Amino acid sequence: MATLAKPSPALPVTIDDVRAAAMRIEGALVKTPTLYSRTLSQLTGAEVYLKFENLQFTAAYKERGALNTLLQLSDEAKAKGVIAASAGNHAQGLAYHGARLGVPVTIVMPRHTPTIKVMQTQSHGATVVLEGETFDAAYAHARTLEAERGYTFVHPFDDPMIIAGQGTTALEMFEAEPRLDTLVIPIGGGGLISGCAIVARAQDHDVEVVGVEAELFPSMYNRVNGTQYPCEGDTLAEGIAVKEPGGITAQIVEALVDDIQLVSERRLEEAVSLLLQIEKTVVEGAGAAGLAALLQHPERFAGKTCGIILCGGNIDTHLLANVLLRDLARSGRLARLRIRLKDRPGALYNVARIFDAQQVNIIEVYHQRVFTTLPAKGLVTDIECETRDRAHLDRLIAALKAEGYEVAPVELA
What we know:
The protein is α/β, with parallel strands linked by helices. The protein has a 6-stranded mixed sheet with strand order 1-2-10-7-8-9. The mean pLDDT is 93. It contains 17 helices and 14 strands.
């Protein structure tokens, strides 16, 4: 896409606001490392530096903006408490630091919010109110409670204090590696990229700021490009699955962000898997979006010194396991082969003999006799197996075909 225009309007957040936020929150959260990844750099063709925000206590950068906001409340506002609508990292960051500071926190979540998210937020001392079937309904109820009870509403992204707090992430990145010339940052509502773009523009050299959104939720992309792509679907990057970006954040993005890239679900899955395998770190889909952009658009970032923020690590363990298994299947290290056999004694043994000769480990065998389009004496067998790599799998398939078997891999979407 074309580079976004960058006028110079008076923006509601300045570099001085971000620096003040950094001083305000210093010592109260983790100053996460910014580390060079030699393997990912070789893989992508860029110089890759990773900012491990998944190492915060609540496993996400959201603590920064939440704490910066809480510290600026009046004593009266602190006594009455704060409220937010969130089922994700914002809820946990606000709850955790509210409890630390003695500020009552109420979080409104949709009724269908997974129990684990409710329990995690409650474990940090927040009062959780379940209301509505959608986030919009929960948000509306939170604003109603704000008016009725005198709470202070803390927006997850569209607030200058939140944006300034999130921008401290980039301050730490440039302190650790001043040579960064490109920031690749996930966009949901836009709070993180807004704060980081303000920091990037304050550097003494040109720094390109590139946003990343999931293809299923290109809300900020639509906003700045005038497109109307749909924002819906089940995305691995649920932390950035935002249908409407903020007004303040959109203003900053339009002024300061150079480009927005869209990434596929497959690349998001690959990025999550690579970060676990290579960096030995657990990252949620939204947190892996920056790396996903380098994987999907390598020519866009070739030769650049890129800072990538791993902005969160809150991923369901079952989902993570599924992502890892799918990645093994796509790489050929895990496969399911559908083989047509003749229904006679020794048929399965003869197939297993070929697997043994090729040194392929059989994990599971599925016989299908009834629910098949084959004749009554026909037999379909699915064999799930482990191989070393795609070439090893190809040799197995070739050996099966050489023995006269009809065989086809069961492919992933």
